[in-house]
Amino acid sequence: MSDQQPIEKVVIIGSGPSGWTAAIYASRANLSPVVYVGVAKQDPGPILPGGQLMLTTDVENYPGFPEGIAGPEMMMKFEEQARRFGTRVVGEDIVRCEFSTDGTPHTLHTSGGSVIRAYAVIVSTGATANWLGLESEMQLARNGGGVSACAVCDGALPMFRDQPVAVIGGGDSALEEANYLTKFASKVHLIHRRDALRGSKVMQQRFIEKPNATVEWNKVVEECLSAPDDRGTQKLTAIRLKDTVTGELSELPVKGMFVAIGHTPTTKFLKDSGLEFDDAGYILLKSRSSRTNIAGVFAAGDVADSVYRQAITASGMGCQAAIDAEHWLGDMGLN
Predict the structure, then answer these.
(1) Is 233 found in the same domain as 139?
(2) pLDDT of residue 39
């Protein structure tokens, strides 16, 4: 008798909104999915368990939570719901994928040294915001201290309303975030390291014309300054800027800092897997589906979405991926 592990029907890689939603739908369809949540320590990632919402303190734009909910708490509830229907959860990364093109099961290698075979694979590893790399930046981002990588997610929170904020970047994404923030903030400072923005002229004009908008030219952030609030939580009070021309240091009082210097899809571990990507590294999907160029491999959430990058859209894509996988398994006579 062979001691080889049985072939899984569905393996889900990643545990953000798309991964857990895919798991809920797949488990309710009796596909017995297994989720590899990631451990955020492996080089071919890192896959942050729970996704980027683990760095979000208050989520106020996800339906069903009228009072808002902390990002980590929301992901815990997603996981509980998936487990309720029988989803199995493994606290490891998938570090390498050998996707089959001949109809045989796909082969996945885990960070623990195991080899897993699966008929269907859903990749939901997300995309990681590009940060400045400051220790003070990450401490405040993790603890709800006023640093964020998503203005659409966090900009309308009470802590930023009628307060001065800063946006870091100079491309269309930064300009879009800055424009959005002008609806809520008393002043929006766009911090750019050069003397000209990279974004489109239309986006530039739209921002510059706002009465509460200003651009800090030739500046980079050296440090995030903070002080404890009434509850003892460190909150952003100012950012220390360095002039890229003169080297002069200055402090800019702000209550929020939004980093908008791009995202990197978590696809490094998929190198040489045979999947097709766009120029920015996002997984390419077939029109109006979660299907990739490889049969039995699906993708959901920010790993395949460079436009919206919201929890609600990621969840919707997770639903699509589970249904697409179920239909594919049915067509193959495997479910």
Answers:
(1) yes
(2) 75
User: Rounded mean pLDDT of 195-220?
Assistant: 96
What's the CA gap between 18 and 2, in Å, rounded?
Answer: 35
Dihedral angle computed from the Cα positions of residues 184, 190, 196 and 200, in that order, rounded to the nearest 10 degrees: -30
Domain end marker among 244, 259, 274: 259
Catalytic, 150? Answer: yes
Question: What tokens appear for 225 in the block?
Answer: 């300054």
Please, which pLDDT band fits residue 42 given cuts at 50, 70 and 90? Answer: very low
Its pTM surpasses 0.90: no
Choosing from 3, 43, 102, 150, the catalytic residue is 150
CB 216 within 8 A of CB 191: yes
Concerning whether 319 is annotated as a catalytic residue, the answer is no
Q: Is the dihedral of CA 169, 173, 179, 183 positive or negative?
A: negative
- Structure confidence at residue 29 (pLDDT): 97
Measured between alpha carbons, how far is residue 17 from residues 38, 277, 297, 300 in Å? 14, 22, 18, 9
224 is catalytic: no
